[in-house]
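A common beginner's mistake is to predict each chain separately and then try to dock the pieces by hand. The better habit, illustrated here, is to supply every component at once so that their relative placement is modeled jointly.
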Amino acid sequence: MTTTSTNRGAGTFSRRLGVGWIGLVPFSVYALLFLGIPAVLAVASGFFTSDGAFTFANFTAFGDPVIQKDFVGSVGLSAAAAVGGAIGGALVCYALLGMNPEGWLRTVVDSASSVLAQFGGVMLAFAFIATVGNQGVLTLILESFLGANSITSPIYTVPGLTLVYLYFEIPLMVLTFMPALEALKPTWGEAVATLGGTRWTYWRRVGFPVLAPAFFGCMILLFANAFSSYATAAALISQGGIWPLDIQRALTSETVIGHENVAGVIALGMVVVMIVLMSVYGVLQRRASRWER
Amino acid sequence: MKKRLLAGAAVLAVAAFTLSACATGTASSGSTDSGSVKTLSLAEAQAATSAADFGGQAGLVAAANKEGHLNVITLPPSWANYGKIIQGFEKKYPKIQINSENPDGSSADEVAAAKAQRGQSTAPDVFDIGTAVMNQNLELFAPYKVATWGDIPADFKDAGGLWYYDYTGLMSVGYDTKKFPKGISSIDDLLGSKFKNAVAIKGDPTQANEAASAVYMAALQSSGSADDIQPGIDFFQKLKSAGNFLSTLPTQATVASGETPVVIQWSFNNVAWGPAAGSAGNPNWKTVVLPGSGLGSYYNQTINKEAPNPAAARLWEEYIYTPAVQNLYLAAGAYPAQLTAMETAKTVDAATLKKVGAAPKDFVQLNSDQAAAAAKLLSAKWSAAVG
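With all components supplied together, the output reads:
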């Protein structure tokens, strides 16, 4: 009986697949054309000279102290933005948990998060320049008390970018982490209480262990998001300091000529970092999904 | 099923081939209705080396009118008066529409666009290009000599007509007189505490020629030379440790808002962002070229070898080298290549020349070896100096 039903299930599945794959075609073609092929072309360019001959010489770029320093800058910035965004976003989620899921506050925060998580690039840079830049509104108000030119705005440095990135990282965390928090069943809390545990026992023994994979998975997503951000940084710091800006420099330089293909090598480095992170994310996600069912 | 798909693909391929054949066909057809002037095929027009190949200026205009388009690239409206220059062309030749692509891009972007859009109707027709990038890509250009070829000094052009100097600025310091009423008389003034968070350059010198030129200028001003730009890097390191260096990328908007109160850049850009820009500019913006060795760098004109609008491209060059347009460069503070000939022929706008100031008798321009050495030093030292 059990065997029959399993067989039938499998049969239905494969017959559905027979027609179902057509539905996947538009997305697959889209992903191939706009993600797969460009990524392969970009990375492949790192293996050629500007004349088209095969070479490994471009990999010497990884020995360049500037590229190395900027790698540290990129990873440091992304890690700081990811940790800050994850903690900040988790706290917002926790606060929202006590709200009525259909209430106006939840609705407002949810929709604001979906908008702000996508708010990046030159517009975001401009928003920060206008408020806390060297001539920003808040800076000028503060300087009217502290004296002219007394404040140096931090947003034009690589560490200062963390502050700017948090503006889209926290909402992204709220969006991705909220489902995990909502999956915590109230019955678990009641069970802990029945067995004589405190609220702290509940979080220490049940809440944190259950949420940890989702939390760290989201954090990796935030890292990847910050790691690949380019436009905001390009608008705020013109002197380089992170890998996406190094790629731009290699591609468009008017002074240091003939290094276009170094961009491919840096892109490969970024892809490797992302593959490592996404694999870790995949493993964590599989563990997390066990609790979300 | 598979066969039918293949057949469909084949039909599409044939259709595409026929269509592209049509596209090339239109350029070469129509030899009957053009009257006395010569009509050239696309390939012939792409190989034309002077207006005479079109049967004179009238023939060139007719051919360009027939093309109806001109693709220019990386010409910001506020850069060396290009806004007015483009408007003037459209007014003079109303049948030709100018598509201005990627106005804020770099010389390297021009080359990348020419390569990426090769054979397409959107490819750039003409380039306004820096010397270093140009020398690496000479195979992309078509030789052409404008009617006023003799007015361009011999060392300002390739003898074969592949490229020709157009204009140069001088590296200058622009500043807000309201913030700094005492003015700036030497580059070391900028190290003073009044200039905290004030001094910006046009990007990363290992990337942008204009930013690199700011470093070269600083070198010339502080005991360096075209062969030794280290003092320039040292200057910016001092500027950075004094807290005066701004890493904001200056634009006309940041100058108007006061975000970048001092900008070291080409004189024509400082002039264009000041009172000359009217309400969009900063009325208190002053441009000074510091005394001592000046630094300039000619930008070149070249034509894309595979220009989709070869006649319009050549007409654009003829237009650029008319005294009227060369005077427009001058009005923006950029010294045009034909200035000396125009002074002799009295076609230069005397009032403008008086306002801008006579062209400096000598200024330093890095030759390609010096530029390559400077770039090497910059890529090794710059990041550490201001990082």
